[in-house]
Amino acid sequence: MTSSPETPADAVKAAPRPVRKLSTELIHRIAAGEVVEGPASVLKELLDNAIDAGATRLRITIVGGGERSLVIEDDGWGMSREDLEASIQRHATSKITDLGDLDRIQTLGFRGEALAAIASVSRLRIETARADSGAWLLEVIGGDRRPLRPSPRLRGTSVSVEDLFFNVPARRKFLKKASSLVAECREVLENVAAAHPGVAFDAYFLDDKGEVRSKLSLFPSSSKLRFEELSTAKGEVFGRVAIDPQPGVRRIEVWGLRPPATSRTQKGIRLLVNGRPILDRRLPFVAREAFSGLIEVGHFPVLQVHLEVDPERIDVNVHPQKKEVRWPADFHLSGLVYGLVKAELEAGRPAPRPLSAPSADTQVDWALSGPAMDALAPAAPVGAPSLAASSLSPSKAETAGESSVPFRSTPSSVPFASPLVPFSAAKSRENAGVPRIFEESSSRPAFRFAELRTVGEVGAAWIVCESPRGMVLIDQHAAHERVNFERILRRPDLIRSKPLLVPVEMALPWSLEDRRADLLAALEGLGFEFSDLSKTEGHTLELIALPEADRGLKWKELLESTLEELEAGEFSPSRLDRIRATIAASLACHGSVRRGQRLTNDEIRELLRQMDEVEWGGLCPHGRPLWVEWPHERFEGLFHR
Does 406 score more than 50 pLDDT? Predict the structure, then answer.
């Protein structure tokens, strides 16, 4: 006796089924699943339609996160009776007519699926008015269309979507809670508003009782002002506009907030292509690279990129919800954005000041020992004794060509850092690593560190000083690390090589074979050494020496990723600079005073003097703050004065 199947899957295996054409209702439900994920995707499709219809003002009302009700009213040109009837049919659209149009899409919508998909899973109501054909009302409930009726509407179109997924309980039960749905709808609304600054938006978010919980009102403005209005943080706006920067790119606008303004998430980074909000996984990474050293670890810059591209150069028909585009092979978004952002940040940096010699009455002996000290110490004349076996006072350092020699430290893993840019970010008071009672540190303090009154040292880690405003607390390791980092970047000869006991083999992509010599020459300038090219078989590189830095860094993976970027054509011109900064950050950490090492008063004064004389920044190469200030008012509050 054969047992019956226990699951639907078993039933399918047990009894093959004939191929049948799906019913129209099932086809619509499946299509709705591709287009309509939730209220936010409905909002996005309806906003696209309104803007394509020439709307200059939009009024949006969202109840219960959009699950209960979502209404969009626009002042566009509306639809005729015939267009309204056709609009809810699948693949019915006025935006394309032939295959040629598909290759040069200039509208936000083009597939003609949105209204049909929404109508099949909700109670849809459309009122539209057109000057030459009157005003009409169409209602569709779960795909069941009601007869058209005249409408009193005077202009534009109003679309109401109620009880989303009322007839698909399996989809409805998986919707997020109302607060999450509101957040998603607001994000969609802000992205569309950012892409179309000339359109006015009035959005109201209501709870289930009909009470307004929040609203968003935006007047027509420029892209810069709209960016400032929608920014997740507040700060000084910088930006640059480039015309025809690359083939096929008509215009690019980059707007951002200068540090210390940051965002805790990637939502502060937007890419807008031909008026369409686009997701690009590379952009947040590129943005953080451009701001590297300017913002603290774990934070993201606030940045917006407007890109106007020849429609024939991109493919927008690659995602069901049109969230992504396919770029041509010769287009490099990463390099374009990085170059513009970095140029703006560089333009705002202060002129570097050379390190000067300490005053004559300052006599500090900086102890030299440890594996990295030779690389960090000033170059000694031929025949001079090893610096690692002696001590060097500031006066001797001046003779040798440097004003300081770093302390010992333990190895530390470091992320990428970008060299020679103003390290002007400050620690956010929201970060758990800094007590909230402290003021946010400024990248350009209102005082000179050498002029502070030194109170002492706490915990063999923190230098306590008095400023005109109150108390300044300095992380001695981070401060000394920053001093060393900038010094190493100015002295490339301090980056030296150390041989590997066992050579490491790496594969060189075939496409880079003709650039082998130039590539290896550039890497060897950073302290990497490779075996003689004549001894290398095929497309293999043999790495025989690494920069004298933290061996915990994954150098092989770093070099391989660099080669992959080159092969894919995504190599940023700053890649080698970032590798150099990584090496400098590691060496600086090795050679800086460690936590737990007590400093004398003279050593503290010398460190403060050097902090004034580097190209100033508020963070160490790892993105940690160097100092915080506690004003007198905070003391008075603690003591109830």
Answer: no
